[in-house]
Input
Amino acid sequence: SSEGREQYDVVVVGGGPGGSTLAALVAMRGHRVLILEKETFPRYQIGESLLPSTIHGVCRMTGVAEKLAAAGFTPKKGGTFRWGANTEPWTFSFSVSPKIAGATSHAYQVERSKFDNILLEHAVEKGAEVRFRVSVSDVLEDGERVTGVRYTDADGTEHEVHATYVVDASGNGSRLHKRVGGTREYSQFFRSLALFGYFEGGKRLPAPNSGNILSVAFESGWFWYIPLTPDLTSVGAVVRRENADKIQGDPERALLALIDECPLIKEYLSDATRVTEGQYGQLRVRKDYSYHQTTFWRPGLVLIGDAACFVDPVFSSGVHLATYSALLAARSISSSLAGIVSEEAAFTEFEARYRREYGVFYEFLMSFYDMHVDENSYFWSAKKVTRNQHTELESFVELVAGVSSSEFDLDGAESAALRMKSKSAEFVSAIDEMSADAEGNMTPLFRSSAVRQAMQEGAQVQSRAFLGEDLGPDVPMFPGGLITSDDGMLWQPGPA
Ligand code: FAD
Output
């Protein structure tokens, strides 16, 4: 073209949380990064309930955490569930125990238009360039290697831009994911559909849980009820595939009928009105959203976030997986560009760690749904959660969030390091205690050794984001695997 050949170190397709996080991290290493985004920001997105690991882990590494803290999002201390035959809602908190609850034992409920915009503006502040209203249609190739992308701008003009690495962060509707090879495999287990909208004037859980996500099972599936602001609530019904007909036809009538089936949500919405204007004015449907690509990269192209994989929304793992995979991929790109490790080793490491994190959530969610099975009904519908399982589940959820959240006191690095170390030890022993009963039999949630290992490694990886070398050396995940640099931005060869 008349502009001449455009060349970047990294082109990122999609400016959601995955794309912005990756762009910020790679730009912070001094590389030239271009984000290509189809929409103009701010734009609507679903996925409003976050985990502490995103806020206090990855967002702290990019430096956007303070901006998020100043944005006035609803603090989320945990989740409140009304599942199974037990009519009493139960609550889990992100703080592992009251003793060590601290400044970082919370996440946020976010309006994604606002959250995603803050992350994208931050990436630009860190040096990334962004173009809006440009739709990427395909990759450019030179033999095995991807060397750039082709995109169409708002005027309908086609352009090409070259890059050493192309990152597909374009979400579940990605048009590029097939180009890594492999296939997108849809989960046979998580086959649900979601119908969701927004209400003003919905009730709140009593303090201190008023910012919690409320998750309520009912005959056809479950509801999320997310307090986005004091007045605005995100409400969604997730129904099992066999009830798909319940969300056919007029969506308004369908949602009201589902709310009628669920007394607790009905009660919470008794004084509320549905928002009918602006970004929250329409009812939306999503289906077939649990899948994974069988390959996550090829030379010059890497998938992160929903472009790579997604699992059922019940524990709010989507944005966590998007930002965590962005961190892993950023390390691989920066290390490879710096010539510290081979491209093959860097991206093998990315894929191994990303798959494990995904696997942990996948297995955990399977176990969660398993617990609600009884003779008469499939999935979550009827079984009363026993006292024992209740405790175990609560502990596990706390651990999943807590491992990632890496709570520590932000006032002093030294005391924080000490606290973190003792906490890591606490995690390890808590994991040991939970993983077997008195006779040494594995409890159901820990059937998988991958889950146990990931819990331990997860604590290490996330703590490193805050404490660097204070934590002691990282350990390779597999023989010959790489370890994380002290500042968490790169991979380096493991011990010989
Ligand atoms: P996205 O947020 O999808 O961003 C992708 C970006 O790429 C978009 O801005 C898009 O405009 C752009 N783009 C797309 N195609 C192109 C193209 N061709 N060219 C240029 N740009 C393009 N997650 C949570 O953490 N908490 C929740 O409570 C939660 N609830 C959910 C409920 C449901 C029903 C569903 C389906 C998902 C939920 N999620 C939740 C998941 C969450 O929505 C996603 O995991 C998250 O948004 C993924 O982020 P991302 O950066 O990978 O992609």
Notes: Residues 96-101, 371-462, 466-470 have pLDDT under 50 and may be disordered. The first helix runs from residue 17 to 28.
